[in-house]
Design brief:
Layout lengths: L18 H6 L2 H4 L8 H17 L19 H16 L3 H7 L5 H8 L8 H17 L6 H10 L6 H6 L8 H33 L31
């Protein structure tokens, strides 16, 4: 493998790829094509993936130089393997997906890997992922915790963009611990939004209050009118 560079912009930082960075990589920006039955799409798809593997030091995961069974107890290795599988599933056409996934788990697996939070709450999103994963396990398709975690974070909506980048700070993250963390962040974001809304409402109310009218000037005296001088004070009593 290539040696690290002093001014390396690679987020994996060195020879050993970081499992969290692999998980959070947007594969659609790196492989902007879906593999289908045409040979032309295969060449482009393969070229893009080769670039990704070389750029992010992932060749050992795909070239057969390391026995994956020997790395089964390495959590980072297993997490990266799960992310690579998700990449493949997300970048192939439904026809090809059908050939590599059993007939009975075809639709369920596509729904699982294509699951996104959208406007759902974190609770509803996590429950939907858990239900799909349970259905896959029932038909014999293994869904590891690393794959659950990778799919969970990849499908978060844009409100959680900054939160997702902080997940790498969690020690030994699991699907359950990350889901709990996301629930806390969701509650915090709701409090911030409510506070901003209240402040904007209060500011709008203060701007809409009726202001007292300015004092009106006295009307001018009519022409030819001269006010009498004030009366002299009364003399003191004897």
């Amino acid at each position: 493998m290539a040696s690290p560079h002093s001014s390396n912009s690679n987020p994996f930082d060195g020879l050993v790829p970081d499992a969290t960075a692999v998980r959070d990589l947007d594969i659609h920006t790196r492989v902007p094509i879906k593999l289908d039955q045409s040979t032309s799409s295969y060449y482009a798809w393969k070229t893009y993936f080769n670039l990704v593997f070389r750029e992010y030091h992932l060749l050992e995961h795909v070239d057969g130089t390391i026995d994956g069974d020997l790395m089964a107890d390495d959590l980072d290795w297993a997490a990266i393997e799960a992310s690579l599988i998700r990449w493949f599933y997300l970048t192939v056409s439904p026809d090809i997906f059908h050939t590599v996934v059993a007939d009975d788990d075809d639709a369920c697996a596509q729904e699982f890997f294509g699951c996104h939070q959208d406007d759902s709450s974190i609770d509803n999103y996590c429950m939907r992922l858990k239900r799909l994963a349970d259905e896959l396990r029932d038909i014999g398709a293994k869904v590891s915790d690393e794959l659950m975690l990778s799919t969970l974070t990849a499908g978060l909506n844009e409100d959680f963009g900054n939160v997702a980048s902080n997940l790498s700070l969690l020690p030994n993250p699991t699907f359950q611990s990350v889901a709990a963390y996301l629930r806390l962040e969701e509650r915090q974001m709701k409090k911030v939004k409510a506070r901003v809304h209240h402040t904007a409402l209060a500011a709008g109310t203060s701007r809409g209050q009726q202001q007292p009218p300015p004092p009106q000037p006295r009307p001018p005296a009519p022409l030819g009118y001269f006010p009498l001088p004030p009366a002299p004070p009364a003399p003191p009593a004897p």
